[in-house]
Specification:
By secondary structure, the protein is an alpha+beta fold. It is built from 6 helices and 9 strands.
């Protein structure tokens, strides 16, 4: 997979998709520094592993989940190698029968397509319908890596900036979970 060199606080060249433009604009507005690489779509964890080597931080595995009735939605940000067991998570968050949410809900609530789910998509959840779940190791890490709402770019952000600048702006409170 071809991956660009590392760029600091520099958007990709050329026109951006609206959701990508909004992500970079918000990071700049909030004064959040980032390192970025561009690549062909990094829409699987295998492809993200190659990108992670360039960024020197693992890209979070982001799972967009819902309850059986599709009335409660969750964005789970976890380490790329962590196993995911719905039973363990369901017990911690008090929601039974978790499953992957439909693609149309991912777009409607977070402005992301499959393979591009990201914590930055919470900027689009103005009704606060998505509960953010951060796996403890991601929450405690110095940096986290994610896509800017499209999987052809990947960012390295200070976790403290995400927790103290980005999430307060979106109005989302993270719930820390152990997997």
């Amino acid at each position: 997979m071809e991956i660009s060199t590392l760029f600091h606080n520099t958007r990709p060249d050329g026109p951006l998709l609206p959701q990508e433009e909004a992500a970079f604009a918000l990071l700049e507005e909030l004064g959040i520094d980032y390192d970025r690489v561009s690549s062909e779509p990094a829409d699987t964890m295998e492809k993200c592993a190659a990108v992670s080597q360039v960024l020197e931080v693992p890209i979070c595995k982001n799972l967009f989940l819902c309850n059986r009735q599709k009335t409660q939605f969750y964005l789970l940000c976890m380490g790329p190698d962590k196993p995911f067991h719905t039973k363990d998570l369901s017990h911690q968050i008090g929601s039974a029968r978790l499953s992957f949410a439909p693609e149309e809900c991912l777009w409607e609530l977070l402005g992301c397509t499959p393979g591009s789910a990201t914590i930055l998509g919470l900027m689009n959840d103005r009704e606060h319908q998505v509960r953010l779940l951060l796996e403890r190791e991601v929450y405690e890490a110095e940096f986290l890596s994610c896509h800017p709402c499209i999987c052809t770019s990947s960012l390295k952000l200070k976790t403290a900036d995400v927790l103290n600048k980005f999430l307060p702006r979106t109005g989302h409170e993270p719930s820390v979970v152990d997997l």
